[in-house]
Known about the structure:
It is a single chain. The longest helix is centred in the first third of the chain and has 13 residues, at 14-26. This protein has 5 helices and 5 strands, in the order βαβαβαβαβα. 40% of the residues lie in helices and 18% in strands. Strands 2-1-3-4-5 form a 5-stranded parallel sheet, with helices on both faces. By secondary structure, the chain is an alpha/beta fold. The chain is globular and about 35 Å long. The protein has helices at 14-26, 37-47, 63-71, 90-98, 114-124, and strands at residues 6-10, 30-34, 51-55, 81-85, 103-106. 33% of the residues are buried. Manganese (II) ion binds next to loops.
Amino acid sequence: MDGSKTILVVEDNPSNMFLLRALLTASGYEMLEAETAESGIALARQALPDLILMDVSLPEMDGLDATRVLKSDPGTCRIPVIAVTAHAMPEDRRRALAAGCAEHITKPIDTRALPGIIERAITEAGTTACRA
Ligand code: MN
């Protein structure tokens, strides 16, 4: 694992942020945090993280709209976004992928599976189409 990778977590729930902070730092990632879609977009543009974990349910703008904004921006469109949601229905997954998310995972987060999902998304980031 490349410990220099930076992951931006956009999450408004403190408990989920705490869990992800513990998991990601233990896995050797640098972590950036935002609690709203708007601040997450701003931080993504400024810091250009290697990957974004995006909560779908956020106050004001939601995570899928934020993903659409990032995917329509040439500066951020190649950053893989993993949607994190409490909704496990096939339609929710379809909506997340249609918004430009590389992957869709459901809460409660599978802490054993997540590092592999992140690594795969980062590895495949260079091959994903940029819509912007
Ligand atoms: Mn939320």
